[in-house]
Amino acid sequence: MLQPSPEQARTLTAALPDHVGQRATISGWIHRRRRLATVSFLIIRDRAGLAQVVVGPSDEAALAQLDTLSEETVVSVEGTVVANAKAPAGVELTSPSIVVIGAQAETPPIELWRPGLAPGLPALLDNAAITWRHAAQAAIWRLASASLRGFRRALDADGFTEIQTPKLVGGSTESGATVFEVDYFGRPAYLAQSPQFYKQMMVGVFERVYETGPVFRAEPHDTARHLAEYVSLDAELGFITDHRDVLATLRSAVAGMVEGIRTDAPDAVALAGARLPEVPEEIPVIHFRDALQLVGADPDEPDLAPEHERRIGRWALEQHGSDFVAVEGYPAPKRPFYTHPDPADPRWTNSFDLLFRGLELVTGGQRLHVYADYERALVARGESTADHAGYLQAFRHGMPPHGGFAIGLERWTARLVEADNIRRTTLFPRDLHRLAP
Amino acid sequence: MLQPSPEQARTLTAALPDHVGQRATISGWIHRRRRLATVSFLIIRDRAGLAQVVVGPSDEAALAQLDTLSEETVVSVEGTVVANAKAPAGVELTSPSIVVIGAQAETPPIELWRPGLAPGLPALLDNAAITWRHAAQAAIWRLASASLRGFRRALDADGFTEIQTPKLVGGSTESGATVFEVDYFGRPAYLAQSPQFYKQMMVGVFERVYETGPVFRAEPHDTARHLAEYVSLDAELGFITDHRDVLATLRSAVAGMVEGIRTDAPDAVALAGARLPEVPEEIPVIHFRDALQLVGADPDEPDLAPEHERRIGRWALEQHGSDFVAVEGYPAPKRPFYTHPDPADPRWTNSFDLLFRGLELVTGGQRLHVYADYERALVARGESTADHAGYLQAFRHGMPPHGGFAIGLERWTARLVEADNIRRTTLFPRDLHRLAP
Hints:
2 copies of one chain form a homodimer.
Chain A: E1 23-35, E2 40-46, E3 49-55, H1 60-68, E4 74-83, E5 91-100, H2 121-126, H3 128-131, H4 135-156, E6 161-162, E7 168-169, E8 181-184, E9 187-191, H5 196-206, E10 208-216, E11 229-238, H6 243-264, H7 266-271, E12 285-287, H8 288-295, H9 306-320, E13 324-328, E14 351-356, E15 359-367, H10 371-380, H11 389-396, E16 402-408, H12 409-416
Parallel strand pairs in A: 3-5, 6-10, 12-13
Antiparallel strand pairs in A: 1-2, 1-4, 2-3, 4-5, 7-9, 8-9, 10-11, 11-16, 13-14, 14-15, 15-16
Helix pairs in contact in A: 4-6, 4-12
């Protein structure tokens, strides 16, 4: 219960090589203690990495203290910075003076110092506050965080305005998807399944908008690729010719995400075991009709099965050397009512899915922009225009041709690290069974 | 229903001065039509501003077309760029060729071409999709959006990691505040009132974290300053000495928000009627005890009333020339259980409120970081540690001294523009009565 170490007086472990020959103070968690016959080590972990502290055999006070220190206890260590090619970052601290900050840590439920995470997924999720301290695990979120930053940076540079739209809504957005009901001051409200309607309305204001935030799906799927709450990276832009303009913007957003990782979290790539893709200047496109033919499916199939997507992903890699491929033209019945038809052939739509390494990562396309078309589309689906009055108002009063897309952040990260379960890629997953921590 | 105008072929209105003497195509909404005896005008609005199109008396085809065009119809106009000091941005388009994109707009419910927004607040909120198209209204959100960007930029530069934490939680975060209940696959869940517990847990991983996202308060207040859903700018950082380190980080975050506006939305300041503050290098601090004395309140008062906050705001302006003042040391009973006491006098806490122009904008402070202290604090409030097991685990296994803050984005914007009602500052407000649009 001693003096804490403020940021100012502290050297991050990664900056120690700049202080060789000097005394320096580091602060962090005791990652690992090792007592050998001749010399003992303390590995300290901070947000920048690891540092090795050496206690010599003659330093009896420090050795005695070492015996009292448990792993994960937070300490400050002042020591002399000495070059040692074998130590992390090529330096170590000698002649240390160790101060405990806070309290002794109890033995953690997960051995954080081991290279891998041994426990099964349920134990890792139950102990999320500790699990994420593991460098390989933390690196997964650092990929996500850097991707978010890169996404915003790319769209900011392209004249987009960030929006924040309500998650409490009066009705459902995506017909078909199931919604969570909320007791809203005694009447029903729902959690937004997407910011779709709001981002379209805001195209009428800012022309180009994006939002990064939570979306909610009450689908009772207990699979390795579904979450009840996830982070959606949404964009919508006006004054397009068709969905190909949307795809071009999506391409630059995804390239921005990769660039964000390269710039802000380059070391997380290896730590998380990620494989970064090259984003081609132009993403290869295949029409839905041709995609069915390619995979040998019935030409009347209304959608692609997961094995079809994997097959098309392989085709894109073989034929175009690309980890990405867009399938365009999905038949209208499988797309939401606001989907713009293909003007040349209304059996098809100006929509697309972007497959990343054979898995659907993004849904996007051109939307209707003429009020009368919305009326027709809703009536055709047996829905009422009155239920959507606030949304449809935008189209009554002048809207440009527009479209957009939504990237699932966790799906992106899961593909980067080839996670066996999407739950490994979000900080505190929510699913059919899990509401805690 | 003619050819749309893709972004590539288009010149933004603000860029027209670069094209004097050339033909250029602009795209946007018909902001205003004016037919005079000798000459007629069309004002086009796009995301960058306004541009004037001139139709001469001899151009009968264009004049006839003008009669058919309603305000808010989306058009593309090709014309010759001519310098005219009286026109917006000093140029106008002559000899125009006008193409309608999409459909004729119905007369909007709000006259967007007028300098001010005439309708009362309920009408503005009911017609939000149209209201936000007004330049003065759009400028308010542009201040918010630029502030978000500036907030992130400041903290990114300071070694923070962005996090995204669940909005669906198993219990309430802030004792006292009321929560929205959700039907979560047949059992109750709640909407998070803040990311408090999660950002603290993530200090154990990344040391310094922030989150920008929605929070939910089911407080049945029908006032000009409460929203049921708002955007919270949360940060939390470890390895602090006390709450003064948190205040220093808050200072740089707020300075970043002001800088964000200056960099990214300088013209929105005047359009929205905002007054930007200077953020002093060091924010003046007054202890709660002294604040009570300053305002002549009973020394046993447990909290500051709004008129007290206004009085302290005036004091800060007069004595320190500052729009900001931090009140520190609030008595423990009025602060949440995780608040760190003042080590010198446990009647007070290491917490603060930041007042901006006499109104509470931010709550922050140092948190407890020792598990045994959490146990004591929860027991003292009659709460169970078992209900918080996933959160408390972080403290069992080593946590540094830490603290953080939460800025209400809408409160910030509302003070900047001196809004009479906070509902004017969020895109689609949610309150006791309003769930739409």
